Amino acid sequence: QSVLTQPPSVSGAPGQRVTISCTGSSSNIGAGYDVHWYQQLPGTAPKLLIYGNSNRPSGVPDRFSGSKSGTSASLAITGLQAEDEADYYCQSYDSSLSAFYVFGTGTKVTVL
Amino acid sequence: EVQLVESGGGLVKPGGSLRLSCAASGFTFSSYSMNWVRQAPGKGLEWVSSISSSSSYIYYADSVKGRFTISRDNAKNSLYLQMNSLRAEDTAVYYCARVEVYDAFDIWGQGTMVTVSS
């Protein structure tokens, strides 16, 4: 059961900007823990896209950016490309007794 | 090349057991915490278990606590997941993943499929 809530889907035309929200609570994002984002292309393993709220691993295009505020975080994709069509997940740490690492519900990005 | 390769998945009956393995290469395995993450067919990612670099700290999701056991052998650069009392809802692709300094999962294996069905 995910404790981080994301919109099920977002879509945009090539070249447009889309954003994906990730809403948590006072035991995870709101407690100051870092948020990370993953991209999962169809049939493949997840790939780290953003770490530590806003940092990009080597090789990730600067079209991808992350931010965090309060109990929420966001992933933005600017200059949307066909190859960005994938599932995206946020992830954080949770200090409650019933969780440790938690993932978001996932968002399907469709390029129109 | 930094790599994680899972193995051991398969078809098992409800109540049965299975042991997954994850072979690490290309990095100093003994320096990193490791995790298992699963993904049921058509569903999202679910964290399963975590083990620290020296096995001092181990954590489980409530959904597997008491049934699954995570372990590692740093001499063999390997991570394991012993799964007992398997249920239909444990059916998923199981990934092993490395944890880096920010607590992000920076390296993932290709996954191994576990199907629990009679």
Short description:
The complex is a heterodimer of chains A (112) and B (118). The radius of gyration of chain A is 13 Å and the shape is globular.
Q: Could you characterize the architecture of this molecule?
A:
Chain A has 112 residues and is mainly β. Helix content of chain A is 0%, strand content 42%. Chain A contains no helices and nine strands. Chain A has strands at residues 9-12, 18-23, 36-40, 47-50, 64-69, 72-77, 86-93, 101-103, 107-111. In chain B, strands 2, 4, 5, 6, 9, 10 and 11 form a seven-stranded mixed sheet that branches. Chain B has a four-stranded antiparallel sheet with strand order 1-3-8-7, with no helix packed on it. The mean pLDDT of chain B is 97.
Please, how many helices of chain A?
0
Range of strand content of chain A? 35-45%
Give helix and strand order of chain B, one letter per element, not per position. EEEEEEEEEEE
Q: Compute the gyration radius of chain A: what is it? A: 13 Å
The helix fraction of chain A, in percent, is under 10%
Structural class of chain A, please?
A: mainly beta
